[in-house]
Amino acid sequence: MRAYVRAVLIVLAALQLVLGVWLTFAPKTFYDNVPTVDWDPPFAEHAFRDFGAASLGLGIVLTAAAIRLDRYLVTLALLAYLAFSVPHTVFHLGHLDGHEPGWSIVLAVFVSLMVVLPLTALPGTRTLT
């Protein structure tokens, strides 16, 4: 279970770090090139850069948790990630584009995994010291 928890932390950290760098330093290219992003409100550079910086911070905490694998830090990192991913998932599931069913399915699966992965890793924190 330790290996699974660490793997989930690494995947989530990598996602947040890549997303954070991209959104912080080139937010318009994210908006212009990632399918489904333009389904939501119009591009706002300030909001995208803030989201990118917050993603970087979360990525750093997830990385630290993956390295240390300390029960308290891992639990805190997973709960912090869920505090972001649950409302993010609810928003996106409520705003799927009916004109693009293929991308709607991809988006629904992806954002759902952002909740399922940390939830499945949380029970594994009981085995950590």
Describe the overall structure.
This protein has helices at 2-25, 27-33, 45-68, 71-93, 101-121. The protein has 129 residues and is mostly helical. The chain has one domain (2-84, 119-127). The longest helix is centred in the N-terminal third of the chain and has 24 residues, at 2-25. The model has no long low-confidence stretch (mean pLDDT 96).
Question: Could you give a quick summary of the protein structure above?
Answer:
This protein is mostly helical. It is 77% helix and 0% strand.
Keywords:
129 residues, mainly alpha, 0% strand, globular
Q: Uncertain segments of ≥5 residues (pLDDT<50)?
A: none
SS strand fraction:
under 5%
How confident is the prediction overall: mean pLDDT?
Answer: 96
What are the secondary-structure elements, in order, as H or E?
HHHHH
Q: Based on DSSP secondary structure assignment, what is the total number of beta strands?
A: 0
Outline the secondary-structure elements.
Layout: H1 2-25, H2 27-33, H3 45-68, H4 71-93, H5 101-121
Helix pairs in contact: 1-2, 1-3, 1-5, 3-4, 4-5
